[in-house]
Write a structure and sequence with these properties.
alpha+beta, Aminopeptidase, 2 domains, 7-stranded mixed sheet, 12 strands, disordered N terminus
């Protein structure tokens, strides 16, 4: 019996001779086991930890590369040279890195002074999302689909907060103050954070700490169209419904609004970031919990409807 290997690593041809005139050829397929966990390849939703922090951050960075809100933070209308100087001041060695326990950021091979204005903004964009993903890994929840974090969702669970000093320290978020330009600091710390915090409290009222807050949901361009984002949404929708809790998000584009509406989210109000030359709209959207076999009665702007459903709409339903 002789064995001849084929040109691929997944099959081999085995030839067995029975008589001088006849032979039997058997083709056996040898399947090599991949190191990629099977459930990752199957598109199952999984929880992301600090080990995959940068992969998740890069997915979101590419997904939001042209997003109006993302550009609002880094395109501050100021001097690009000043922005590069601020980045260098944050890390004079020219490397964008952090050595906190559990966090390992990328290291640059050269100085920030060698970067163009566009490259500086891109690195800042990636850093913002890296810090954000890390803070959610520490004190929130990060879920993903795909072997390379092809689609990522950042959640703040009910009763959780990301502004604790330990979370800020470990995630590297403290660096952002020194990396942003003076105008960028005003936009992020003086305008964006207070506005988002106050708006969420106003819209949700006494349910503010009893809500699943979707901070980011993005899919890398090469993986879009596969339904990954829908899987992440549906996974948390099932949990929120089981816990009888609403879901809350801020949408930065009208196209996203239409997408989220397919999953039961409703626009409650629009807010605007106004320090730039063109205001940036953020739509506040809420999804009320569904009870099996019931239809949710949403809050109405009609005063009579509000009076009729006094006490709120959480968990309220009409039997179908």
């Amino acid at each position: 019996m002789t064995a001849a290997s084929t040109s691929t690593s997944t099959s081999a041809t085995i030839t067995t001779t029975t008589t001088p005139k006849t032979s039997v050829t058997v083709v056996a397929t040898l399947t090599k086991r991949s190191l990629i966990p099977a459930r990752w390849k199957e598109g199952s939703v999984r929880v992301v930890g600090m080990a995959e922090c940068m992969e998740a951050a890069l997915t979101l960075a590419h997904a939001f590369a042209t997003d109006d809100y993302a550009r609002y933070v880094v395109d501050d209308g100021g001097d690009d040279a000043a922005a590069a100087a601020a980045a260098t001041a944050a890390d004079p060695s020219g490397s964008s890195g952090s050595s906190e326990k559990g966090v390992s950021w990328r290291k640059s091979s050269g100085s920030n002074k060698d970067l163009t204005a566009e490259e500086t903004k891109w690195r800042l964009h990636v850093d913002i999302l890296a810090y954000t993903v890390a803070s959610h890994c520490i004190s929130g929840l990060v879920t993903a689909v795909g072997p390379e974090c092809d689609s990522v969702a950042l959640w703040v669970p009910p009763g959780k907060h990301l502004d604790g000093w330990w979370t800020q320290l470990r995630s590297g978020m403290w660096r952002l103050y020194f990396q942003l330009s003076p105008e960028g600091r005003k936009r992020y710390f003086d305008e964006i954070l207070p506005l988002l915090h106050d708006t969420k409290a106003q819209v949700l009222g006494d349910r503010d700490d009893d809500t699943w807050y979707l901070v980011y949901l993005g899919t890398k361009p090469s993986s879009q169209g596969r339904g990954y984002a829908a899987k992440l949404l549906q996974d948390m929708m099932a949990r929120a419904d089981a816990e009888n809790r609403p879901m809350y998000l801020e949408s930065s584009s009208q196209a996203n609004n239409a997408y989220y509406e397919r999953f039961g989210f409703e626009v409650k109000r629009d807010i605007f970031l106004e320090r730039g030359p063109v205001p940036v709209r953020l739509s506040i959207m809420v999804r009320e919990p569904r009870v099996p076999g019931c239809r949710v009665a949403y809050a109405s702007s009609n005063p009579l409807a509000k009076k009729k459903f006094a006490g709120g709409v959480k968990g309220r339903c009409d039997v179908v």
